[in-house]
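Dear H.,

Thanks for agreeing to be a second pair of eyes. The structure we're designing against is below in token form, covering all 260 positions.
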């Protein structure tokens, strides 16, 4: 705990058997109260490794996609009475030791959302990020900052921390089950006036680290553009969007996880 806040780390997992143990060992367990892993129908030993490590594990019987996995992660964390939820990929691409700093930024009451930026500190290329991904990251981020009126260093990091209130307030249930879920969630946080903080985070790119291929990257990029434009049209009052709805039925429900 930090400042009396229960901290839960969630791991959306897919084929993470080779990296999970090392990643889990680097988590600051002195302040993390619980670790939850949701396996998205992997056909390797991810679940077995997770259970050997004593991680509370939930397995999808069918693959629901990266976004669908996160929806289960957050629902389980809310059901576990988490005050602060940190999403950490089990592929050990992001630095788990930064969980303490990220959670503290929320526990202090200064921020509602914090993410680890690969761009701050200029470590992305040095860490092995493919140059085409770096260029796309910078271009898409510049476009989104311009369209939605933000000043973030990037929108595409998968290392994030949220307060309980954010997860209950945002209409996450209507988001994509694919990779663009991450981007939609961050734009929603901006739209709902959540306080967003960033921290520099070195990352590692290696064969076992999960990455999407060029084709999936293009699909993701188009989804990012669509999300930004949807926000602008919604902000101007020209178009309604469920992404920015305040309807209770569009929100995740604490304690509810659909059957696998």
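And this is the sequence the design step returned. I haven't edited it by hand at all.
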């Amino acid at each position: 705990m930090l400042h009396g806040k229960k901290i839960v780390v969630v791991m959306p997992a897919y084929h993470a058997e080779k990296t999970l143990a090392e990643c889990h060992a680097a988590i600051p367990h002195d302040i993390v109260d619980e670790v939850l892993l949701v396996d998205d129908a992997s056909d390797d030993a991810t679940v077995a490794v997770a259970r050997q490590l004593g991680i509370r594990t939930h397995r999808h019987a069918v693959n629901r996609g990266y976004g669908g996995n996160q929806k289960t992660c957050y629902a389980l964390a809310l059901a576990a009475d988490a005050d602060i939820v940190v999403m950490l990929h089990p592929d050990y691409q992001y630095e788990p030791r930064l969980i303490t700093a990220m959670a503290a930024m929320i526990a202090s009451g200064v921020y509602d959302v914090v993410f680890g930026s690969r761009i701050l500190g200029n470590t992305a290329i040095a860490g092995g990020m493919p140059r085409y991904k770096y260029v796309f990251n910078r271009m898409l981020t510049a476009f989104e900052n311009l369209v939605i009126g933000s000043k973030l260093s990037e929108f595409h990091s998968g290392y994030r921390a949220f307060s309980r209130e954010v997860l209950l307030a945002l209409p996450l249930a209507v988001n994509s089950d694919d990779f663009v879920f991450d981007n939609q969630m961050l734009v929603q946080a901006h739209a709902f006036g959540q306080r967003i903080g960033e921290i520099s985070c070195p990352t590692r790119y290696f064969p076992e680290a999960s990455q999407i291929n060029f084709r999936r990257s293009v699909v993701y990029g188009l989804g990012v553009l669509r999300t930004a434009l949807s926000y602008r049209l919604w902000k101007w009052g020209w178009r309604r969007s469920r992404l920015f709805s305040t309807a209770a039925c569009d929100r995740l429900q604490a304690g509810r996880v659909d059957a696998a």
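Two observations from my side: Residues 126 and 203 are 9 Å apart (CA to CA). The mean pLDDT is 91.

Warmly,
E.
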